[in-house]
Design goal:
The chain is of the alpha/beta class and 269 residues long. It is built from 12 helices and 11 strands. GO terms for molecular function: NAD binding; oxidoreductase activity, acting on the CH-OH group of donors, NAD or NADP as acceptor.
Length: 269
């Protein structure tokens, strides 16, 4: 079997494939769309992360492809219906980075609350200022989690350890699941209205694209913090920037964008 790797995968992850004499592994990073279309017909499997879009156009060129493997949780960069019509199996790694994503969410939140990114260059420049960077505690504040899945659930547990009040919006879970995490199941409107911190943990699809927009920002508390470690495009980024400029949102931490790498003026700001 010939396997094409188009995004960076750790050597440990590739080792079992490379040690199997039945499998030929070709690592080809940074391919253009045209280059990928030209060579994909030679392969029976492709392994990607989020950097490669496996769309219907690519699948049409993949005459021998049997499996598309996404080394990660989300499969929004794969057109699953198009693959299924060609009899191609699509698989992912649903638990691959869930702990990392949850910890990263908390790291970004703590960095915002404690003004780490502002204090660090201030100290390195020789200043000795404390008051501007005091920040505030998480204890007693309300966290609104949108999507109580594998990552969202872990964020909830970690936030509870910081003695936060946690509520969640997720139309696909039961009251019992929310109770198991010690959180309150509420509407999206209640998240918007009452949360001091809003953290998004949903896949990107037609239902979630742009689900947090200008109207939602207008209804949020003054000084709210918004975190997105899920997928770019779930939050309207132009509306997010307007809310930051107006002061309605005091801080935003994103590690995902609707365009990656970000090039537009909105995303650069």
């Amino acid at each position: 079997m010939k396997v094409l790797i188009t995004d960076e995968i750790s050597p440990e992850g590739l080792q079992p494939l490379q040690e199997d004499p039945r499998i030929q592994v070709d690592v080809k990073l940074g391919l253009t769309v045209e280059e990928l279309h030209r060579i994909i017909g030679d392969y029976e499997a492709i392994i990607t992360r989020s950097g490669t879009r496996v769309d219907s156009a690519l699948i049409q060129h993949a005459k021998n492809l049997k499996i598309i493997a996404r080394a990660g949780v989300g499969i929004d960069n794969v057109e699953v219906d198009a693959a299924s019509k060609q009899g191609i199996i699509v698989v992912n790694a649903p638990y691959g980075n869930v702990n990392s994503a949850a910890e990263h969410t908390m790291a970004l939140l703590l960095s915002l609350c404690r003004n780490i990114t502002q204090a660090n260059p201030s100290l390195k420049s020789g200043q000795w200022k404390r008051a501007p960077f005091t920040g505030h505690e998480l204890k007693g504040r309300t966290l609104g989690i949108i999507g109580l899945g594998k990552v969202g659930g872990r964020v909830a547990l970690r936030a509870k350890a910081f003695e936060m009040e946690v509520m969640t919006y997720d139309p696909y879970i039961s009251e019992k699941r929310a109770e198991d995490f010690g959180v309150k199941l509420v509407s999206l409107e209640d998240i918007v209205r009452y949360a001091d911190v809003i953290s998004v943990h949903t896949p990107l699809n037609d239902e979630t694209r742009g689900m947090i927009n200008a109207e939602h920002f207008e209804g949020m508390k003054n000084g709210v913090i918004v975190v997105n470690c899920a997928r770019g495009g779930i939050i309207d980024e132009a509306a997010m920037l307007d809310a930051l400029d107006s002061g309605r949102v005091t801080g935003a931490a994103f590690d995902v964008w609707s365009e990656e790498p970000p090039t537009s003026d909105v995303l650069r700001r």
